[in-house]
Amino acid sequence: MRFRSDPAGLRGSIAPVVTPFTDVGELDTEGLRRLISWQLDSGSHGISLGGSTGEPSAQTPQERITAMTEAARVIADRVPFLPGTGSARLDETLQLTAAASELGADAALVITPYYARPTQEGLFQWYATVAGQNPDLPIVVYNVPSRTAVDIAPDTIARLRRQCDNIVGVKETTRDFEHFSRVLHQCGRDILVWSGIELLCLPLLALGGVGFVSAVANLAPAAVARMFELWTAGEQEKARDLHYALHPLVDVIFTETNPAPAKWVLRQAGLLGSAHVRPPLAPVSEAGQRRITDLLSAGAPVLTPPLTHLVAP
Q1: Global pTM exceeds 0.85
Q2: Which of 73, 166, 239, 277 is 20 to 30 A from 135 via CA?
Q3: Is residue 171 flagged as an active site residue?
Q4: 263 is catalytic
């Protein structure tokens, strides 16, 4: 909560951790605490929970609140905490966002409502309502059209920024790089923009982005954080080296539907007790496991323990 009063400090690699489940599909709070501790020890600049990588639509609101509660306890204000609080339903979104605020989150990451395909006016009213009912909590718009079937336009974000003081930024998970630029141009360069597309994380910094919420941080948190640090320190060539070194691990994440591959790797490394994903997701196939093993070997230079144990010397 100590970062809430200065949202401009929410920068760097915000790791979107997976939500661990037991083999029978129950929430694994011990596994969640272990993952977050590893992220903090690895140098991640912040923690997110309950975004797309966290399987939020497969959980009840109470399960999501329980996970947020556990995460907040482990983080203990050491780094910013940006939980995902969005849903396809407004009442659930308001319930989850209010819970995040009470738990001391530094900002709430609110996904565009999925399936309904609202107009831009509908999106404006949705976010204005969430922001208006949580005036003391910074709100980050989460734009991920590949999963929600709706793309929030730059001028809608700009309109929200003008009306709602606590709408401070946007996580852009779109491959349309012009979209990034138009958001920064129309909203002003003081808006906080994070990339949710792994291979656009580094390029966004050149436009004025403040960091990334990258699923590959589940596998290489130290390297993803270091890439941001090198760029901001003016060591662009070293940052580029990490960007390219991370390519094989980006391919691991998307070997099959995220987060199943990441969970399989974390289970093999002993960081998770189970690789369980809830339906409609399926466990990684045998072919996928073989592909992941090859890619981990290619990405070995940026892995750290315990994942290094998965790569043959």
Answers
A1: yes
A2: 73
A3: yes
A4: no
